[in-house]
TrEMBL record:
SMART domains: PKS_KR. This is NAD(P)-dependent dehydrogenase, short-chain alcohol dehydrogenase family. The keyword Magnesium does not apply. Residues 2-176 form the Ketoreductase domain. GO terms for molecular function: oxidoreductase activity. It comes from the Bacteria. The keyword Oxidoreductase applies. It comes from Methylorubrum salsuginis. Belongs to the short-chain dehydrogenases/reductases (SDR) family. Keywords: Oxidoreductase.
Length: 244
């Protein structure tokens, strides 16, 4: 069975996706910044390779493509940022960093592995999963930088889905606030987290496994007729209002 590459493979959502896929027998190649965490995760999961590096390093993507092998069945780019600030306090370099990590990194990851993804599908299709946010579809104050970057991810995914068809499918998962290390600054404040949970129809904040279930489905053969979609895992936040 060909491998699935997971960028951010030791993070909250990326790690949960990795565990789900390994439970289904899918070999993996994880990418992350911390070599020690990657090595431990690879050892625990089994049949898992890894590459350590930062997605702001343009040379990382070629290394991943080389080390992950020349046949891939999927790619998950579970790397992101949460930069919340009013417009007046957003420095250009911070906005550029958000764009580089979220959007440019996603493009470079797919570009570097496209050949291996096409080679690994046989008679089926390879699956690529990128990540957006509910804030790209909803207007939230103080979300200008992340919403702009993730909006670019959604546009990128549509273009890639059209260009790389029929051998590679590209879809986007758009979560609402999820309890991960990345969001800990928000979720560890229970009063704040409770208030945000109340804004959702399902009255709770997401868990990594909520999002990972969809990502694992979309990257796999069961989603063989799904491409070019942006799908929310957001407790109804993007579509429903239960009060007022």
């Amino acid at each position: 069975m060909d491998r699935v590459v997971i960028y951010g493979g030791t993070g909250g959502i990326g790690g949960a996706t990795a565990r789900l896929l390994r439970a289904r027998g899918v070999p993996l190649h994880l990418v992350g910044r911390d070599a020690g965490r990657l090595e431990r995760a690879a050892s625990e999961l089994g049949e898992t390779g890894f590459t350590a590096g930062d997605v702001t390093d343009p040379g990382l993507f070629a290394r991943v493509a080389q080390e992950a092998g020349d046949r891939l069945s999927g790619l998950v780019y579970a790397v992101g940022t949460i930069q919340l600030a009013p417009v007046a306090k957003l420095a250009p370099e911070r906005i550029e960093a958000d764009f580089r990590i979220n959007a440019l990194g996603a493009f470079l990851a797919v570009q570097a592995s496209a050949k291996a993804l096409k080679a690994g599908v046989g008679e089926g299709t390879a699956g690529v999963v990128l990540f957006s946010t509910v804030a790209a579809a909803q207007g939230f104050a103080n979300h200008a930088s992340v919403a702009m970057a993730k909006g670019a991810v959604e546009g990128l995914a549509l273009s890639l889905a059209a260009e790389l068809a029929p051998t590679i499918r590209v879809n986007v998962v758009a979560p609402s606030l999820t309890r991960t290390p990345l969001s800990e600054a928000i979720t560890r404040n229970e009063a704040l987290a409770s208030g945000i949970a109340g804004m959702h129809a399902l009255q709770r904040i997401g868990e990594p496994e909520d999002v990972a279930e969809l990502a694992a489905f979309l990257v796999g053969p069961q989603a063989g007729y799904v491409t070019g979609q942006v799908i929310g895992v957001d407790g109804g936040r993007s579509r429903l209002r239960t009060k007022g």
